[in-house]
Amino acid sequence: MLIGHFAVGMCAKKASPSVNLAVFFIAALFVDLIFPIFVLLDIEHVSIDHSITPVVPFNLSHYPYSHSLLMSVVYSLLAFILCTKWFKSKKISFIVGLSIFSHWILDFITHVPDLPITFGDYKVGLGLWNSIWGTIIIEGSLFIIGVYFYLKSKPGFNKKRNIIFWSMISLLLVAYFWGIFGPKPPENIPESAIAWAGFSIWIIVIMGYFADKKETSKLT
Ligand SMILES: [Zn+2]
Where are the beta strands (DSSP E) in the chain? Predict the structure, then answer.
């Protein structure tokens, strides 16, 4: 899934309003944030193949370290343990862990059977990406729900944060529809270039941070 992961982050923010939105974006997209690092380390592999699905042209041939069910459980549990120390709140830690795990569930719905369970050859995926309109309806609905719940978290926007938030939402939607309907990248693009492009997720994480960052009260 693509924008659906950001929707999870925005829903998680509603459940723990005291934590910055960027934390939940990092959680909901954690395995996508570490994936490019593993590709650059040459232990995970991806290539462009236009015959894979009409929505996303990635042939994700080997990515058990970031995207297996086993590792998703491990990352979720580790995050839960670390967050109980950091936030001193079991509720927040549980929501962070659940956000990390949600990534696998959403990817399971959308990906063709390329998601590994462990490190073996058994892979799963329900293949929603085989349908462009099915993807847009389901993921789009999830995204609208995410924005709705974020706004229900009473972010208390000032003018600057309001602009950053809606720019972030617009950027996500433009990138999303450009990815589906725009020109497809060439198939011979090097793996490292795909990995570097993957780091662009951080742009949204940073925008989410500043959109959600409350002004500290002035002393004078
Ligand atoms: Zn993913």
Answer: 45-48, 58-62, 115-116, 123-124
Q: Which residues place a Cβ less than 5 A from the ion ligand 1?
A: 32, 107
For residue 147, report the distance from its CA to the centre of ligand 1, in Å: 20
Tens of pLDDT, residue by residue over 152-172, are 998 888 999 999 999 999 999
Q: Indicate the number of domains in the chain.
A: 1
Cα dihedral across residues 171, 208, 13, 129: positive or negative = positive
Is there a contact between 147 and 165 (Cβ–Cβ < 8 Å)?
no
Q: In which band, very low, low, confident or very high, does the pLDDT at 216 lie, cut at 50, 70 and 90?
A: low
Residue 63 lies in a domain: yes
Dump pLDDT digits (tens) for 22-63: 999 999 999 999 999 999 999 999 999 999 999 999 999 999
Q: Could you tell me which of 55, 63, 193 has the C-alpha nearest to residue 118?
A: 63
Structural domain includes residue 174: yes
Tell whether 72 is covered by a domain. Answer: yes
Report CA(84)–ligand 1 centroid distance (Å): 25
The DSSP output letter for 186 is P
In the reported structure, the alpha carbon of residue 18 is separated from the centroid of ligand 1 by a whole-number distance in angstroms of 26
Does residue 20 form part of some domain?
yes
Can you give the residue range of the structural domain that contains 77? 3-212
